[in-house]
Known about the structure:
Layout lengths: L3 H10 L3 H13 L11 H6 L5 E7 L5 H14 L4 E5 L4 H14 L16 E4 L14 E3 L5 E3 L7 E5 L1 H7 L3 H12 L2 E7 L2 H6 L17 E7 H4 L6 H11 L7 E8 L7 E3 L25 H4 L1
Parallel strand pairs: 1-7, 1-8, 2-3, 2-6, 6-7
Antiparallel strand pairs: 4-5, 8-9, 9-10
Amino acid sequence: MATxxxxxxxxxxxxxxxxxxxVLYEYMLYSDSHIFKSGIAMLDKKQDFKPGxxxxxxxxxxxxTSFLVQLAYNxxxxxxxxxxxxxxxxxxxxxxxxxSLAETQPLKDTSHLTFTDFPNITFSRDLPSPNxxxxxxxxxxxxxGTLKTYNENATPIIFLDSLDIAAxxxxxxxxxxxxxxxxxxxxxFVSYTHALSQFAENVSVKSYENNDFIxxxxxxxxxxxxxxxxxxxxxxxxxxxxxxxxxxxxxxxITLVSVKNRFGLRGFKIPMQFVKSxxxxxxxxxxxxxxxxxxxxxSLF
Length: 301
């Protein structure tokens, strides 16, 4: 078997420089590291992903679920076990988004993919029991008899979509998340929806003061419309809401802002056009319908 050095040398000899560096970066990103990487280079340079609660806030329709699903997909690529708690969208909808990512970032032929082809993810509407995750390093047999080995050093990663809907069913959800993180030392990513007028005016900790989850969160990011927050519209909150309802802003107008951060830099901004597959899901048609998808019910609930 060729060594890493020999393999990289062979790739370099047959690839243009820019393409080789892209392959090298992707190898380093998805190479059995026990440290979670978001898959967004600009974010990974600024953010140390330790166990904690990460909240992604934003106006309705800005792309919080797209961002959350992208992070979950990148975690699966790196062999982390993912548990996705669905409140804001159905399991079918999240699955279709994962399938869309698999098609745009192909690892194999995706024409006949079913739910069982994503072995590193489980779904539910509640926090998982620690026993729901395979023992770290456990190997399971694939259908062809080969073994699939999960990242031995990796901890499971939890995604909750979305906090405001989950809180209607369980007002103590953030307290439970905090206790779960403190007990099991896992990263938890949570989406949260702001009112359009409130979020477009200013992305700051002040925007969250009326919400009791501020004390539980370790990191708060905000997805914002850059041109609106910078004051390029006039007329106050009502004017902003009317503008957003009638306008489909391009991805270049959306920025990820670090509002609160116990693990890294606060106040950094990342233009979302650097997230290649961000926003791909809107307007996408699928040949498969939800009723034709194959689910393993034992793994869902």
